[in-house]
């Protein structure tokens, strides 16, 4: 009865499907390499690392810049505070940067 029905030879179909799946997988890998999207998880981790680095550098640079600017402004008005505001705002920038880094690192990942 199986011979009378419209059956297909599973061996031929499996070989064609396997070949097609291999060609599709190869084409997808080539497209990922071409567009630079080899591993989406690695891209996410790279973005997270860049964000942490930006927070650290931004906190240091921002605090130092604000402290230096205030030192210069108070110095022009006759109240020399030369290195003190620079140091205070530098340490405040470091504290804010580390607080932001801790906040980033304790955030739950998306699933």
Using DSSP, what is the number of strands?
Answer: 0
The pLDDT mean sits at: 85
What distance lies between the first and last C-alpha atoms, to the nearest angstrom? 50 Å
Strand portion, in percent?
under 5%
Q: Describe the biggest sheet?
A: none
Radius of gyration from the alpha-carbon trace, in angstroms: 30 Å
Report helical residue fraction.
over 70%
**Unreliable stretches:** none
Written as H for each helix and E for each strand, in order along the chain, the element string is HHH
What best-fitting shape do the alpha-carbon axes yield? rod-shaped
Structure description:
The chain has three helices and no strands. The protein has helices spanning 10-35, 40-76, 84-105. The longest helix is centred in the middle third of the chain and has 37 residues, at 40-76. It is rod-shaped, with a radius of gyration of 30 Å. The mean pLDDT is 85.
Task: Give a brief rundown of this model.
The protein has helices at residues 10-35, 40-76, 84-105. The protein has 111 residues and is mainly alpha-helical. Helix 2 runs antiparallel to helix 3.
Fold blueprint:
Blueprint: H1 10-35, H2 40-76, H3 84-105
Helix pairs in contact: 2-3
Key phrases:
111 residues; rod-shaped; mainly alpha; 77% helix; 0% strand
């Amino acid at each position: 009865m199986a011979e009378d029905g419209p059956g297909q030879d599973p061996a031929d179909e499996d070989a064609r499907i396997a070949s097609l799946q291999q060609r599709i997988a190869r084409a997808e890998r080539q497209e990922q390499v071409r567009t630079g999207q080899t591993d989406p998880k690695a891209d996410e981790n790279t973005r997270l690392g860049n964000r942490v680095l930006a927070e650290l550098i931004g906190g240091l640079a921002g605090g130092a810049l604000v402290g230096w600017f205030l030192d210069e402004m108070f110095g022009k008005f006759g109240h020399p505070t030369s290195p003190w505001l620079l140091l205070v705002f530098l340490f405040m920038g470091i504290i804010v940067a580390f607080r932001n880094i801790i906040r980033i690192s304790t955030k739950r990942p998306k699933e």
